[in-house]
Amino acid sequence: MSEGKRPAPTHPSQILPGSFVEGLRGTVLRFYAKILDVIVAVMIFLMLLTLVFAVASLFWDIYGSLRDFRQEEVIRSLVSDVLSVFVLIELFRTFTDYLEFHRIRLRVLSEVAIVFVLRELFIGLYAHRLGPLDLLATAALLAVLVGARIAAVRFTPRHGDLD
Question: What does the alpha-carbon distance between residue 150 and residue 144 come to, in Å, rounded to a whole number?
Answer without folding.
Answer: 10
